[in-house]
Amino acid sequence: xxxxxxxxxxxxxxxxxxxxxxxxxxxxxxxxxxxxxxxxxxxxxxxxxxxxxxxxxxxxxxxxxxxxxxxxxxxxxxxxxxxxxxxxxxxxxxxxxxxxxxxxxxxxxxxxxxxxxxxxxxxxxxxxxxxxxxxxxxxxxxxxxxxxxxxxxxxxxxxxxxxxxxxxxxxxxxxxxxxxxxxxxxxxxxxxxxxxxxxxxxxxxxxxxxxxxxxxxxxxxxxxxxxxxxxxxxxxxxxxxxxxxxxxxxxxxxxxxxxxxxxxxxxxxxxxxxxxxxxxxxxxxxxxxxxxxxxxxxxxxxxxxxxxxxxxxxxxxxxxxxxxxxxxxxxxxxxxxxxxxxxxxxxxxxxxxxxxxxxxxxxxxxxxxxxxxxxxxxxxxxxxxxxxxxxxxxxxxxxxxxxxxxxxxxxxxxxxxxxxxxxxxxxxxxxxxxxxxxxxxxxxxxxxxxxxxxxxxxxxxxxxxxxxxxxxxxxxxxxxxxxxxxxxxxxxxxxxxxxxxxxxxxxxxxxxxxxxxxxxxxxxxxxxxxxxx
Length: 533
What we know:
Layout: H1 27-33, E1 140-146, H2 148-157, H3 170-174, H4 204-209, E2 257-259, E3 262-264, H5 267-285, E4 289-297, H6 303-315, E5 321-325, H7 337-350, E6 354-363, H8 368-371, H9 374-394, E7 398-403, H10 406-416, E8 423-425, H11 432-441, E9 445-449, H12 460-468, E10 474-476, H13 490-501, H14 505-520
Parallel strand pairs: 1-4, 4-5, 5-6, 6-7, 7-8, 8-9, 9-10
Antiparallel strand pairs: 2-3
């Protein structure tokens, strides 16, 4: 339906002929000279303006798989890729047609703007996680895998495709590219869009949207922990007749104050009691707070942003932010001695804030053509195996990305990793068989379930994975901004998991947060020798 309008401006910028796509002036060119064909409405092609934003497509994917919800078995509507692929999957809706929008959304502010929601909007899982409905009563949560630099870059520059022309075209480098000017990749340095550096202040809005769990400390003071000499009894039966409801001492009839049948030594103790009672109510009504998040840095140009994020948290005395470093399987060709040394240097500089290696692994879905060539497949496997051995030598938990590569992934883990090493298989969507095998071979492994389970079109297979994975081996993650908007939607994800497992959402948050802390050693004093890195 999106192909039918004949009065649209010429298409460019990627994809095959006849497929919906972004404006030909997108990416690096758009930032240099604007978009003359789309300055005035109607804007036919995906831009960064409000709800007209589109998917990052090939190259804009920093590790997440925004097209994952289409990968159920079947046709192009309910699953599988269309013949053109989903490299430019912004099917924008216009007044002249009724085409649906699979990925038109906005990351400005705090909510997605979309004409066709990806997530399930029933009462159990459709909320954003901002409002507490009584299930969580002052609980905390962890996001075990996210890419906050990409989230902040999207918000700051207002463009879902800001990395689209990040890489040079491999065909062009060989001398000839069949896509010509419509290629999704850069043909020369002049077309490449260099990633802008973020500053620590750029992360302030994100941190403010995610209040620290420690901010609930005042409301969480128990009677035994009070420093003002009093106690606030939540049960009147514990207060002896004639004794003060605040301090517990016998009251003097001459100064006694009584309210709602409860006596106090005087008006001062009554006021303190009321303040404690208000704090108790606030604690009971408080929404879940972010306890920890693990930010993943997966390529060299993202290292300065990871450091800036840690610096922003440090300035606010915020101890919730941790990082992992590694080479994403999309970037397997770049990995070698030089890249490894730069990643190791980042681990050294971040000290105890660096808590894992990865994500690394094998992705035969995105590298479909390369993996069919024996020499390239062998190189991919060796890059993964080298990083697995490195994680083991450093004593860092391993973050695994595996997609359509289960046999090779299992072989690499089995041959290169000690059985007691912690593993986080992130955003898992593979087979139940592989899940069971890894859980049995590696008793300290956990599997990450992402926001995919809340998508309206989530396949039954994904839901079966949630049901199958034991709660004590499960962690929740957003893979933000790819598979969820941002960490604070984790409570919504917990609701969906709770419904599938038949337990309370609070229990899911409690268990998955404990699993995340255990896997990455969060909340513990960790000392790692710099010489060992």
